[in-house]
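User: I'm putting together notes for a lab meeting next week and I want to include a structural view of one of the chains we've been expressing. I don't have a solved structure, so I'd like a prediction I can at least talk through. The sequence is below, exactly as it appears in our construct file.
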Amino acid sequence: MVWPAAVITTALASLAIVLGVADGRAQPTVRGAEAVVASVIDGDTIKLTDGRSVRLLQIDAPEPGTAECFSRAAGRELRGLLPAGTRVTLEPDPPLDLIDRYGRLLRYVHRGSANLNVELVRRGAATVWFHRAERGRHSATLLSAASSARTSRRGIWGACPSAVWNPLGPATTGPGSPAAATPTPRRPIAGGRCDSSYPTVCIPPAPPDLDCADVSYTNFRVRPPDPHRFDGEGDGLGCES
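Assistant: Thanks for the context. Below is the predicted structure for the 241-residue chain, given as structure tokens.
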């Protein structure tokens, strides 16, 4: 049987997309399922209205709940891009991992025509992280966006003098400003309001969102929902020294 040329062309194009050919060049976008944002957890993670969490693929932002430079600002950047109720498209990138060890989906997140993984890097709100040195289909675009942000000293690259450029490792931005790194003395809380997520210490509920540098406690017990995200490792302890 002789296959029509159009059929052969379509089949080859589909095969190229499936294979990904992750050689550093930008690859055709494979669009995935649509979803709706419920909330932004931190600078590189969102929660969907169906209960699933999504970790933005091939990037990393400073971890909240620490004194790491730009940790809170990174979350604010993503919240500005993805307010609750935003409809997004989630793009997988085979053969990269589709789910991480915490059960989060690993995806590129698109809002309209914008790839927000790339946009965060372009703004300097996140760095590139090729986990296990694996480069996905947007690796060249991500590296170009990072180069632009670093040259223009946007975001992390202007605010954090100790920021390290290492696309093979997680974001390392160094300590925040001296004021942010100095623990705030405990102040009386009106009405004695203490959040039940922190049963052994008295920390007020959010808002505002607090970091470890804002409280005078270390190694305290944390239980869900941990509104201030003090327990970044999920081991039940907050602000570990």
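A couple of points you could mention at the meeting. Residues 34-159 form a domain with the OB fold (Dihydrolipoamide Acetyltransferase, E2P) fold (CATH 2.40.50.90). The two ends are 70 Å apart (CA to CA).

User: Perfect, that's what I needed.
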